[in-house]
Amino acid sequence: MGSSRQRGTACVRSRAAVMPLQTHPHREPQSTGALQELPRWMRIYFYGMHGVTLDVLMSSLQGVFKDHGWKLLGFSSVYLLIAHSLNHLALEKLFALRRSFGKRPALFHMVVYPSIYIALQGLIGGLHALTWSSHDPVPWLSLHMSPSGRLCQLLLQYLVALYFTLVFHTGMSQLQYVPSSVQTVSPLQHQDPQRCLPGFLHFLFFGMHGFVDEVVFTSVFNLMEKADHSLSGHTSLWSFLMYGSCSFAVEKLYLHLHFGRGWGTLKRLPLYVCVAYTWELSWGLLLRQFGACSWDYSHYPLHFMGLVTALYLPGWVCLSLYQDVLTTVLLRIRCTQQGSEGPCDTNGLVQVSKKLI
């Protein structure tokens, strides 16, 4: 009796010691009830950023065939940024109607969606061409194009439409958001890798955001310097790699210094600015070797080798402060299988389901 009671007590104690490890591996609110659909403002923000990225990509490719240069300049505008946001908000509603096609998904994905998408892009391109004062090519469909140019653009836009209906919308429907009312643990602690966004998506986001930063900045500069009311701006494909890698490195600094060492914003800010200037100088020196550097500050005061200038210090300070805001938002986005037909794999990557085709 005594020995069995001792064994029972030992068993209870051992179970009690193990149970907390089994039931509370971490405090990250990963329950489905804590997750919400991405807020509308966040989707609009991302739609506009993604649209500007496509503008820059398509116009830069046109420039490569025309000029054969390595600067890879691409163009967009503030008007197109707004148009893309509203356009894709409407296409989001269209994509939600795909279930009404029942057992004929190919009809929706291959015909209906691309037709409406191309019509909307033609409308945007036609309206924007009326105010496009730049000598550079209009990045979207327009009646000002030659017949062969319009045909090439139609084929290209059809492929882009397939990308949106088969990949983009499916991926967006898998993303959900942890509301600010829910307290999350430090990202340095254990989190479920099946739900957190993988690092390469952070890199893509920062790269696309760099395009928007430069397009908006150059459009405002053109408005003030040249009275260009088209609000058109430019950037370079190299900026995607430069901004993406720099912001990704600064994000890692933020996680280490803020959560690991408890540094405040004012203590982190000088380090952020030093990283930004070092990154711009390093990339400028590298691209200049191949004639691919798209900026030159030689005519500005307080410049160094024409690649960096202290005149832009306020801008780098503002972008550094905004960087922490973007990181905080990205850390609250989760990848989930709910609300979509394609699963996420173990790294949170979006896979295209064969059911869509």
UniProtKB/TrEMBL annotation:
Subcellular location(s) of the protein: Membrane
One Gene Ontology cellular component: membrane
Superkingdom of source: Eukaryota
Ranges in a coiled coil: none
Membrane topology annotation: Multi-pass membrane protein
Keywords: Membrane, Transmembrane, Transmembrane helix
Chief location of this protein within or outside the cell: membrane
Transmembrane spans: 44-64, 70-90, 111-135, 155-175, 196-217, 237-257, 269-290, 302-322
PANTHER family: TRANSMEMBRANE PROTEIN 229 FAMILY MEMBER, TRANSMEMBRANE PROTEIN 229A
UniProt record similarity statement: Belongs to the TMEM229 family.
UniProt name for this protein: Transmembrane protein 229A
Organism: Knipowitschia caucasica
